[in-house]
């Protein structure tokens, strides 16, 4: 029974961790776009986004990452045989990629704190899709429990990602054409 509670808590904190990662990049995009506004609007928006980013990052995203990791390690202690399985080894590779992604978000956060976010909003929109690919890969690995079954799921998400990138580019063109930012 303890195993099921620990698994449930792991899933909950993985969910909140990913929610934080998805939303933090969105806030980075809004922050970057606010930098292009007139001075008064820029100051108000960037200050508000900095506050929102800080709260999301340190109140939700970081604690969720730590707790998801604690419960994951606990699950592996209860089920050490998983470490010998190919699907788990591949999943742990994706988890390492997730930590690298999380760290890259910390770097972006630090740039915002210094007032010097170096990436464009378009680059951030593309970067946002990396977390989606990691999520899909991990879910397919855990559900299918095969070393190769995840490839089909990841191939599908890559296809969807390409469509999303084309959609982002189309959205950018429509937005520029129609001036959606104006009232």
Task: Characterise the protein shown here.
The protein is an all-alpha fold and 183 residues long. The chain has 5 helices and no strands. Helix 1 packs antiparallel against helix 4 (121-144), helix 3 runs antiparallel to helix 4 (121-144) and helix 4 packs antiparallel against helix 5. It is globular. 21% of the residues are buried. The model has no long low-confidence stretch (mean pLDDT 90). Its EC number is 1.3.99.-. This is Protoporphyrinogen IX oxidase. Homodimer.
Overview in brief:
The protein is an all-alpha fold and 183 residues long. It has helices spanning 2-34, 39-78, 86-113, 121-144, 149-178.
Q: What are the secondary-structure elements, in order, as H or E? A: HHHHH
Question: How far apart are the termini?
Answer: 56 Å
Biggest sheet details: none
Helix share, percent: over 70%
Work out the strand percent: under 5%
């Amino acid at each position: 029974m303890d195993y099921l509670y620990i698994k449930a808590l792991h899933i909950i904190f993985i969910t909140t961790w990913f929610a934080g990662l998805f939303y933090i990049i969105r806030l980075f995009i809004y922050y970057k776009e606010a930098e292009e506004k007139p001075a008064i609007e820029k100051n108000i928006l960037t200050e508000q986004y900095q506050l929102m980013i800080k709260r999301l990052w340190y109140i939700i995203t970081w604690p969720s990452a730590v707790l998801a990791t604690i419960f994951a390690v606990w699950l592996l202690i209860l089920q050490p045989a998983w470490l010998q399985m190919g699907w788990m080894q591949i999943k742990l590779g994706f988890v390492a990629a997730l930590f690298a992604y999380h760290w890259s978000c910390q770097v972006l956060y630090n740039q915002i704190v210094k007032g010097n976010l170096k990436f464009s909003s378009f680059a951030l929109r593309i970067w946002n899709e990396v977390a989606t690919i990691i999520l899909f890969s991990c879910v397919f690995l855990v559900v299918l429990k095969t070393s190769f079954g995840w490839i089909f799921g990841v191939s599908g998400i890559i296809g969807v990602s390409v469509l999303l990138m084309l959609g982002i580019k189309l959205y950018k063109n429509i937005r520029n054409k129609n001036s959606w930012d104006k009232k």
